[in-house]
Amino acid sequence: MKSRKLNLFTKLVVLASLILTISSVQAKKLYWDSNSRTPVRIDVVDDHGRTLNQYSADSRGYKTQRTYLEAVKGKRYQLRIRNTSNRRIGVIVAVDGRNILSGAKSYLRKNEKMYVLGPYESASYKGWRTSKNRVNRFYFTSAGDSYSNSWGDRSAMGVIAVAVFDEKHRQQHRKYRRNDMNKSMAPSRRGYLAEESTGTGFGREEYSPTIRVNFKANNNPSFKHFFKYEWRNTLCKRGIVNCNYYENDRRNNNRFWPRETNNGYAPYPPGHYRPNQNW
Fold it and tell me: Is the model's pTM score more than 0.70?
């Protein structure tokens, strides 16, 4: 009788473990459901409105939310950002380390050009803004063909960074639409990087009207989210996606996405079985 009870207990433990495993997988797919308290919801989508594949990254020890994103070469993309709060916010977006409004090197600081979203407002950001009414589209390409590399800036390649700023001394404003703008900064030259590196190109021009509004931001962002986009092949190599093979990932350091380490200990060799133990 005692043995039967023990077997039943063991089965319950196994069942609970399976439920936890399934829940963790669902949590990765339903990312935004588990992060409803963030001031914004950010989706990276294609021109058909389909959300690009995202994979959770370890954000412990960082002051930012971090996510891996699967890039498809040549695909145009846009950022769809929704203000989930009841107040106006400022949003700085930097792609490959360059502010998408000014084209300048971004450090996600309050004195940079930013878009403004009203309470619960949504907006899509499709490209590099070259004038009040024009943008040149984002598209995934090799790093050597990227907008950032055309300025000789390789310091944050393959990262989409979003920083949210609360408004200082809120006041009543006239009716507005989103945002701010700056003059054209077109690329003047091209450099070269390894082909497996990703970047965002300066694509076709499209009509995209804006209006300038007054917005005074707090000194520091209230929230930051970094997307590290990579080709699927690279995600496989890094073990982000299980593709049943392993290769060394040799890339330069990235100021927005430093290389992950193994805490100073010897890593498991390629192809070696790694037990799931927490010692």
Answer: no
